[in-house]
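Page header: ASSEMBLY MODEL / two components / 653 residues total.
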Amino acid sequence: MSLLKNREALLALAILVLLGLVTTRFAGFVAPSNLALVFNDTAPLMILAIGQMIVILTKCIDLSVAANLALTGMVSALLNGMGVPLVIILPAAILLGAALGAVNGILVWKVGIPSIVVTLGTMTIFRGIIFLITNGKWVNAHEMTDGFKALPRAIVLGLPVMSWIAVAVILLATLALGRTALGRAFYAVGGNPHAAVYTGIDVGRTQAAAFVISGALAGLTGYLWVARYAVAYVDIAGGFELDVVAACVIGGVSIAGGAGSVAGAVLGAIFLGVIKNALPVVDISPFWQMAISGSAIILAVAFNALQSRPRGRIILKSAEAR
Amino acid sequence: MSILTPRVIPDRLQSPFARAAKSWEALLLAVFIAVFVVNSFASPYFLNAWNLSDATFNFTEKAMIAFAMAMLIIAGEIDLSVASIIALASTAMGLAMTAGAGTPLLVLVGIGTGLVCGAFNAWLVAGLGLPSIVVTIGTMSLFRGISFIVLGDQAFTGYPESFAWFGQGYVFWVFSFEFVLFLVLALAYGILLHRTSFGRRVYAIGNNATAAAFSGIRVARVKASLFLLTGLMSGIAAVCLTSRLGSTRPSIATGMELEVVTMVVLGGVSILGGSGSIPGVVLAAFIMGLVTFGFGLLNVPGIVMSIFIGILLIAVIALPRLFSRRGPARK
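Prediction written out in full:
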């Protein structure tokens, strides 16, 4: 019974059922080598979902992650074209991403604009900046050095570096959220902002910190994305921010803030990744993917709402439900 | 309160003119006039009735949805599925057309599909009590996903001649059907929000849903009607857009939901609910349309316009907060 109470366990179970269904049509899908491929393919979504989860924990939302990814990815590709070594490009991408996240954070913290408005604005601004610095030109594979493209693909201990980076982010985020003061502050700020203020937590600053982390992870993903697909242009990862939010929602992260886990966000991303990778295998047109993930989001939200509905009669709440 | 600080007169005791001058709509009007004047000097082609009329197509369809969206956001909810409703309604019209439906039936199918989608959102949010921002991200994928399942990478073309009038016809001299419809709807929504008890209920729910429920307002019912309205307006916009483009693709109106929300927020509607006005949204629509048109005449690419719109969006929200004496407003 306690297993059914645990959202992450339920989601893991749902993913296993999904894998089982795919296996009935195509047994090779659950081969370890193929599962590793699926994991690797989902790595960018996982990394971004962890960042988004931290932002959602603090009662905010970050719609600019995909645009941030595209901008830092483009800058990484341009730096690479100038002959800057990879040792500098990687930290630069993370720093640039964090700086873009800080723009969001400062607008939310110091100016007090609701996060959805801020990130709606910066989302279009970041994409526009890519156009300004490149004039709409693409950076193609032959314009990137081999070392730049090889890093995410390099195999270490049987897995590509991209997967290892995702694993590292998962472990770091789990530790940071569970074992640091800032990590607990994210939960406190989203769970009850007023109580957080009385315990001496600065709500705005904590939200800004969440945006910086989300931005830094988007910057890291920007390099990985461009290096892996070996192309950079204005519209890469277009609409990806919604997949990221979807992964969080399916992973049981509450949009009201204060509830969610790294494991949930990662499993939500894997759920979407499995669907995406399984459709071609079981002969369903990839055009079905959007409708399926949409249905998954709605079901997940409905399920989470049912689970978190308080037991017993709450007199005040019932008035609104009429 | 020391003697040195100037005496503060509460807003409600000042003259209507003083109040109006300090309002959001006045700021927007100033921006609108500035953009208009700059554009007139920037390009010789700007002050031409036919060009200006063409420019209205940049915002008429978005604005129709923005009116309903403004009311929904004032009530403290949001509908991010509007652009996908357009895609699905347009797909349904394409299917009806291939089945040999005439123009009146096509319009009915488009509007009907919009209403059905709106009803689905209404059931999820008002019926089941789910948070609208996430649910409508879900229905956004679902509705457009169905269009993709039906169409794949194909398109419906070959709409009947008479159907083209909705997006391409003119009612009077340079005034297109869409622009006239936009004006009529602006008036209708202005009356609905500012002159009816339904409008007052919308504000009440946005300010405090629990208090509204206790004062006898049927919160769920009002919210459901608002989702039906955004669905209906998306259906009407789908008829206009499909007619104007003369074709249906599953990617039709991609990203429009964000432009609609931008228009609403630019119009002074608080994203947190409880305040905003229809005249503000009308002005925001004109500003966005003029900016797009003016930049277009100067051969500035669309993406650079979006930078400008993004900065404008953040700036108009930030400036009043930075310069108000109370400091930044806290959520």
